[in-house]
TrEMBL record:
Signal recorded as keyword: yes
Species annotation: Chryseobacterium piscicola
Family annotation (Pfam families): Por_Secre_tail (PF18962)
UniProt keyword list: Signal
Protein name: Por secretion system C-terminal sorting domain-containing protein
């Protein structure tokens, strides 16, 4: 075909124009090339995409999408711009941290041509957290994350705290099919959860490498006999945490059957965020105004130690 553009092949009945099968669309024209000027851009910076050899049809456009998203009406682009020449440069600003790709789309639609151009915004992009800061031996560990690179060979590694430079001396490794946002439960003592007590961390790596793409999440593994003094409110109704889930700025109330000696608030990574001592009461109000959305743990020290999960949504 001599004219560039979008076409379709149809199957028609009895020498007429009644279509009796689905259309097959295709594109005829040059192969466009997109190229970012860098692999990584700072938050607040300008993402620069060069393009060459474009068909320059009416209302062709370049869209910027998060990894894992497929262009379409259900998945709007993070930002976009029309192209009016066969080659040129487009600048994009205001992108939050994340992994992205640029793609060339035809005539105000969602038909993509050429190869995608990949880049990231921000230094450590992926947010990783686990379901609790302390585990007993053999207990499953559930990891959750957002904004991963989306590569099929991305993986989660567990290391002893003594290994500060990740290498092949990991406790375990787990693939998760390159899902950009989700969770994975790690089980078993063979390439799974740690088989000895101690302090560990989990981190995400990309594309079968040792390049860290997430924050490190620290946790502790204790022996089963050492955890008998720690209880969850679902099994022993001696401590109540409400409302839960809570909203930012909304106080969380703690009610105990025993006088409270100390309260600690920990992040999902096990970092101590807040502590108060000498409460000497059976009730306490915890203010959440500075807490972003996420999962936290509240340790209530009474006659026993109670660990409760708090969700801010």
């Amino acid at each position: 075909m001599a004219t560039k553009g979008q076409y379709f092949a149809g199957f028609f009945a009895n020498n007429g124009y009644t279509e009796i099968a689905g259309r097959k669309s295709f594109y005829v024209g040059p192969k466009v090339l997109l190229q970012p000027t860098a692999d990584s851009y700072p938050v607040g910076g300008t993402v620069v995409i060069n393009y060459t050899n474009g068909p320059n049809l009416t209302n062709d456009w370049i869209g910027i999408y998060k990894m894992g998203q497929v262009p379409g009406t259900a998945n709007p682009s993070a930002t976009w711009s029309y192209v009016t020449t066969a080659a040129g440069t487009k600048n994009f600003t205001g992108l939050p941290k994340g992994y992205y790709y640029a793609t060339y789309l035809l005539e105000d639609g969602y038909t993509q041509i050429g190869e995608k151009a990949f880049f990231k915004v921000g230094d450590i992009v992926t947010d990783l957290w686990i379901n609790k800061p302390v585990y007993t031996l053999g207990e499953n560990i559930t990891a959750s994350w957002t904004d991963s690179p989306g590569i099929i060979k991305d993986w989660l590694g567990i290391y002893p705290q003594s290994v500060q430079t990740p290498n092949d001396q990991f406790t375990s490794y787990t693939y998760f099919d390159g899902i950009t946002q989700g969770n994975k439960t790690i089980t078993g003592n063979v390439n799974g959860v740690p088989s000895t007590t101690g302090n560990y961390y989990m981190v995400m790596f990309t594309n079968d490498s040792y390049a860290e793409v997430s924050n490190r999440v620290s946790f502790e593994v204790v022996g089963a006999t050492l955890g008998t003094n720690e209880a969850n409110s679902k099994t022993e109704k001696n401590v109540i945490l409400y409302p839960n889930p809570a909203k930012p700025g909304q106080p969380t109330f703690i009610k105990s059957d025993y006088p409270i000696e100390k309260i600690q608030l920990l992040s999902a990574a096990g970092q101590l965020l807040y502590e108060t001592k000498n409460v000497n009461d059976q009730k306490f109000s915890l203010v959440n105004e500075n807490l972003p959305k996420g999962v936290y743990f509240v340790k209530v020290h009474t006659r026993k130690l109670f660990t409760l999960k708090l969700i801010i949504e």
